[in-house]
UniProtKB/TrEMBL annotation:
The gene is LOC107485436. Residues 107-201 form the MULE transposase domain. It holds the Pfam family MULE. This is Protein FAR1-RELATED SEQUENCE 5-like. It comes from the Eukaryota.
Length: 268
């Protein structure tokens, strides 16, 4: 199988599609089964090889963490493997990260948008900002999927490793699964959408630099609610985007991103 075929298969597998259906799809793209230069057995063999390689890498990773723990006794890590011994989740944080969290835990960024690696494992990073306005990493994790239950497990590991000290506020990219998990594990924490992701989405959904600038002003401007409302509707009317689903969704979720609506909550 070519690298392109393997990537296509992996993407479809992540969507829960079985090998037989993927093979049918590949055949339709190629104009018939006779034009597909591999069989379903070949696809299963590739899957098995990826799982073996992933397992070997997981063993190396766990062995490395065990060696680190010998020099850093308070290093915390937790893993979950499936019935075949393949790594599903791995969470870790060292002593420096734990100390940083105890000082700078007020605001935690929960970023689950890092690119997946060749073993289809998303990288999740928990981070914050120190007194020098520098990013500090509190913990990191590799996960096999992006379900609510997975994020609940990750947040529970963060909770345990940081001695049950809860963050005041959590910033995310707005994924519904992460939001739901936060509400379950840290129900008292304030939730805010990441400004960087919102500006990127504003650009991709509307595609007008002037709109993005005006949206940024609505988002970050220290306005009273009444002023925010006026500026928002003036902007929407100016660009004729009242019927855009993304615009409607952003307005419905304004209490999670507009400074006018969250000025009394701590997100420094």
């Amino acid at each position: 199988m070519s690298e392109a075929d393997i990537k296509q298969m992996n993407d479809m597998r992540k969507g829960g599609i079985g090998v037989s259906r993927i093979y049918c799809f590949m055949a339709s793209l190629a104009g018939g089964y006779h034009n597909v230069p591999y069989t379903t057995r070949d696809m299963h063999n590739v899957n098995a090889k990826q799982r073996r390689e992933g397992g070997l890498d997981a063993e190396s990773c766990l062995r490395y963490l065990q060696e680190c723990k010998a020099n850093d006794p308070t290093l915390y890590y937790k893993e979950v493997v499936d019935g075949e011994g393949v790594l599903q989740y791995l969470f870790w944080c060292d002593s420096t990260s734990q100390i940083d969290y105890q000082v700078f835990e007020d605001v935690v960024a929960f970023d689950a948008t890092y690119k997946k690696n060749v073993y289809l494992s998303p990288l999740v990073v928990f981070s914050g900002v120190n007194h020098h306005n520098q990013m500090v990493v509190f913990a990191a994790a590799l996960v096999a999927d992006e379900k609510k239950e997975t994020y609940v497990w990750l947040l529970q590991q963060l909770q345990t490793s940081m001695k049950w000290k809860a963050p005041v506020s959590i910033i995310t990219n707005g994924d519904k699964q992460t939001k739901s998990a936060i509400e379950q594990v840290f129900p008292e924490a304030h939730h805010r959408l990441c400004a960087w992701h919102l500006l990127r989405n504003a650009t991709s959904n509307i595609g007008k630099p002037k709109f993005t600038r005006m949206f940024r002003d609505c988002m970050l401007g220290d306005y009273e609610v009444r002023t925010f409302q006026r500026k928002w509707f003036e902007m929407v009317e100016k660009f004729g985007i009242a019927n855009k689903r993304w615009v409607q969704d952003m307005y419905e979720r304004r209490h999670s991103w507009a400074t006018a609506h969250i000025r009394e909550k701590f997100f420094a």
